[in-house]
Amino acid sequence: MAARPRFTSRATVLVLVLCSLVAILAYPTRQFISQRSEISAQRAKAEHARQQVEQLRREKTRWQDPEYVRAQARARLHYAMPGETPYIAVDPAGQSAAKSPAAAPAPSDGAAAAPAKAAKPWYASVWDSVDAADTAPPSPPATAPAGASSPHDH
Q1: Which of 23, 78, 80, 98 could disulfide-pair with 84, CB 3.0 to 4.6 Å?
Q2: pTM higher than 0.70 for the full model?
Q3: Which secondary-structure segment (H or E) carries 37?
Q4: b/e per residue 111-124 (b: at least 16 CB within 10 A)
């Protein structure tokens, strides 16, 4: 009896068909998987945006309350109601340290200057910047180059 070949023509055709199907379906499958990941990323983005919108709606309803607006005006802008006397509390330890630098060691990172600036109301900062912009720095006297004659020499 003759030995049968290991792969018949039918098996070869079947292997070729299967390989071609895998090659044909590989790209669409990869696209499908990447699109699914994009869809999930977009859904996460949409959920995040939905949460932000909800947070902004809650904040908007808070700002509709007149008591909340008054509290924010007092805290942020240092406003006072008519008939009230506004006070700004100053830390006495901060003042004594500013008056005598030997009393307490000054931090090297400039942290002591930040609280003093934060205690200043916003309108004072605006006014200080207007004053600084209004005053021009003194211009240095112009010097004539050596050997140049001035019009008053003649």
Answers
A1: 80
A2: no
A3: helix 9-64
A4: ebeeeeeeeeeeee
